[in-house]
Amino acid sequence: MLEKREFYINGHWVAPAQAHDLQVIDPSTEAVVRYRHDDGDPTSLGADTVRFILEDRSGRLWVGTQGGGLDRLDHETGTFHHYLKDRGAPAAAGYDDVRAIFEDREGILWIGTNGGGFDRFDRESGDCTHFMHDPQDPHSLSDDRVFAILEDHTGTLWVGTYGGGLSKFDVSRKKFRRYRNDPGDQNSLNHNIVWSFYEDEDGILWIGTDSGGLNRFDRRTGRWRHYLHRPGDPSSLSHNTVRVVIGDRDGVLWIGTNGGGVNRLDRKTGRMTRYRHDP
User: Fold this and answer.
1) Are the C-beta atoms of 29 and 21 separated by less than 8 Å?
2) 231 contacts: CB under 8 Å, gap ≥ 6
3) Does pTM top 0.90 for this prediction?
């Protein structure tokens, strides 16, 4: 499933279209500018399937593509700068299938790829440091398919992987701590495919998983709580695949599912309110 994300950037809506192009929409005129890959133009979009978009604090637009790596759009010229999978290049993004882009508090970009691991990209120097899974190193990245990245209030990075669970990254020591599902331990991550993160005002991590529902992790106590779909219970999570978790300004938690619509969580009672499509 392709995650379609829309952003309001410099007065324009930016939307990755399903396997076609990148679209920039001016809401005042409803004019649409489409960017597509052109084999004959090296400054065109790297690939037509767009997986992720990030506007950094400088207003630069970064585009993660499937097959074309990491691109940066030059707003003035409408051209793209490419950071591809060539490991020999100093500014390589690590792999050509980019699934997550995150800017930390220092302005460093962190790139999650589908099979190429986790990359630290310094935009000023052009240096790229690659972190990959090593079966012989328990402190390495848990899996090379990285689909979610979060920096918490302490500056710690959390990396959600497709199959390897959750990795906590100590930036200074360059070491990972892994959190994986243990079928024999209910006090563990409920599924090893992680789609999304959210940190609330109390420092609690909320983790959206594939088929494992919504996971709540209190790092101070080390305790996990799982919110799952219970057939026949309309106050439970509507679907166990959670693709998006976000909190609003009132502290309400919203959960987007893959097939079950949107859920609103009352954190005091643990009850969900469901919002679904009604044809």
Assistant:
1) no
2) none
3) no
Contact 95, 46 (CB under 8 A): no
Contact between 202 and 253 under an 8 Å Cβ cutoff? The reply is no
CA 35 to chain centre: 22
How does pLDDT run along the chain (279 residues), one tens digit per residue?
A: 334 344 444 444 455 544 467 877 777 777 788 889 999 999 999 998 889 999 899 888 899 998 888 999 998 898 999 886 555 554 444 578 999 999 999 999 999 999 999 999 888 777 889 999 999 999 999 999 999 999 999 999 999 999 999 999 999 999 999 999 999 999 999 999 999 999 999 999 999 999 999 999 999 999 999 999 999 999 999 999 999 999 998 889 999 999 999 999 998 888 999 999 998
The pairing of beta strand 118-121 with beta strand 146-151: unpaired
Q: Which two tokens stand for residue 242?
A: 């959670």
Q: How far apart are CA 139 and CA 120, in angstroms?
A: 17
Nearest-angstrom CA–CA distance, 132 and 155: 21
Amino acid at 220: R
DSSP 24-66: EEETTTTEEEEE---TT-TTS-S-S-EEEEEE-TTS-EEEEEB
- Beta-carbon contacts of residue 46 (< 8 Å; ≥ 6 apart): 37, 63, 65, 67, 68, 69, 70, 71, 80, 82, 84, 96
| CB half-sphere exposure, 49, CA atoms < 13 A | 11
Helix (H, G, I), strand (E, B) or coil at 215: strand
Query: Of the candidates 20, 74, 71, which has an alpha carbon nearest to the alpha carbon of residue 49?
Result: 20
CA-closest candidate to residue 193, choices 178, 212, 206, 177: 212
